[in-house]
TrEMBL record:
Family according to the record: Belongs to the DegT/DnrJ/EryC1 family. L-glutamine:2-deoxy-scyllo-inosose/scyllo-inosose aminotransferase subfamily.
Pfam families: DegT_DnrJ_EryC1
Origin superkingdom: Bacteria
Biological classification of the source: Bacteria, Bacillati, Actinomycetota, Actinomycetes, Kitasatosporales
Cofactor(s) demanded: pyridoxal 5'-phosphate
One function term, GO molecular function aspect: transaminase activity
Transferase as UniProt keyword: yes
Enzyme Commission no: 2.6.1.-
InterPro entries with a match to the protein in the record: DegT/StrS_aminotransferase (IPR000653), PyrdxlP-dep_Trfase (IPR015424), PyrdxlP-dep_Trfase_major (IPR015421), PyrdxlP-dep_Trfase_small (IPR015422)
Protein's name in the database: DegT/DnrJ/EryC1/StrS family aminotransferase
Keyword list, A-Z: Aminotransferase, Pyridoxal phosphate, Transferase
Length: 383
């Protein structure tokens, strides 16, 4: 099976884990701090603004909770997002309000966001589809003008930039997912960026029960009764640990090679699929934008998309569509009409893209896709 996603872990990561075992400190500790500092350097921000968490979803929930949202408040977000973002908003008592997107890039434009704003809007939660930065710079500027908090769900964009500036640092808060399907993985994990220093310190406390001290062991050096608790507000335990941080530190060092290989695969797909009738490839990146290349998506007539996916699966090539439109999910209670999102959801297919794909794999996917589109297109034309 040629997989959609596949982690690249090996001897370096295994050696880093072995070092943690030898040191016998598996929990939150020095390697966690070192990983946070290394990622902060990657972003170009202060180390105390980055928090390593148990998952990206935990980061989204922490972010939303930190805003103090209440019933009646609204958060605008693209319908084509991962459900964790909508779940976090809904769990706070607020309501996710879904906006439309550009049907080719699947990223919202400012006019899409603006059309969903109401006097009850407290924040905008932006996804960078497939790693493309989209209109993040303009949306950040507009949100600042209107006094709206901008949250960046940067799960797809761990190495994306605009004019050399890291995606995830344009808004007020951001999170990255490090699960097993992501470009940089710790198995499960997430990273949180908070622009404001005081808010970052608060988020760090909330990630560990609301305690002011990370560990009793460390607190013993500054207090003669280190076992006593200081809990200014209630939190939960969603911190990362040294075991997974050790893996993440190695993965972060390898990130440039991962992204370079993904970029090469994208170029090969572009070349192999350029002349396939009835197939639209991802639009080119604007000048001064870089992508992490998390997704490679193609678009075709909605009448054949599902059949093409079935033909590829029968040939042991796993494809999918991400992300299913959330405004269609009854749980979220949306009555929004989003024609561009609906169109893109019916026409788009994500192809295998991971840094372990061989050139032969790419050629195989392209050949099978070419055949499936032609066969299904002929069949649809004959009906």
């Amino acid at each position: 099976m040629i997989n959609l996603f596949q982690p690249a872990v090996g001897d370096e990561e295994l050696s880093a884990v072995a070092d943690v075992f030898r040191d016998k400190w598996l929990g939150h500790g020095p390697r966690t701090k070192a990983f946070e500092a290394a990622f902060a350097e990657h972003l170009g921000v202060e180390p105390d603004r980055v928090v390593f968490l148990a998952s990206g979803t935990a980061g989204l929930f922490l972010i939303v909770e930190s805003l103090g949202l209440a019933e009646g408040d609204e958060v605008v977000m693209p319908s084509m997002s991962f459900l964790a973002a909508a779940n976090a908003v809904l769990a706070s008592g607020a309501r996710p309000v879904f906006c439309d997107v550009d049907p080719r890039t699947m990223n919202p434009r400012w006019e899409d966001v603006e059309a969903a704003l109401t006097p009850r809007t407290r924040a905008v939660l932006l996804l960078h589809y497939g790693g493309q930065p989209g209109h993040v710079a303009e949306i950040a500027e507009r949100c600042r003008e209107r006094g709206l908090t901008l949250i960046e769900d940067s799960a797809c964009s761990i190495a994306s930039t605009v004019d050399g500036r890291a995606v995830g640092t344009f808004g007020d808060l951001a999170m990255w997912s490090l699960d097993a399907a992501k470009i940089l993985t710790t198995g499960d994990g997430g990273l949180l960026y908070v622009r404001d220093a005081e808010q970052a310190a608060r988020m760090r406390r909330l990630a560990y029960h609301g305690l002011t001290q990370a560990t009793g062991f460390g607190y013993a050096k500054v207090s003669h009764r280190w076992w006593e608790l200081e809990v200014p507000e209630i939190g939960r335990r969603v911190i990362g640990n040294d075991l997974t941080a050790a893996i993440g530190t190695v993965q972060l060092r390898r990130l440039p090679e991962f992204v370079a290989r993904r970029r090469e695969i994208v170029k090969r797909y572009d070349h192999e699929l350029a002349d396939v009738a009835g197939l639209r490839l991802p639009p080119p990146l604007p000048d001064h934008h870089t992508s992490s290349h998390y997704f490679y998506w193609v678009q075709m007539d909605a009448a054949i998309r599902d059949g093409v996916a079935a033909d590829l699966l029968a040939a042991d090539i796993y494809t999918t569509f991400r992300y299913a439109p959330l405004h269609k999910v009854p749980t979220y209670g949306s009555d929004r009409v989003l024609p561009a999102t609906d169109r893109a959801a019916g026409e788009t297919l994500c192809l295998p893209l991971h840094h372990g794909l061989s050139d032969d794999d790419v050629r195989t996917v392209a050949r099978r896709l070419r055949e499936a589109v032609a066969d299904r297109g002929r069949a649809a034309g004959a009906l």
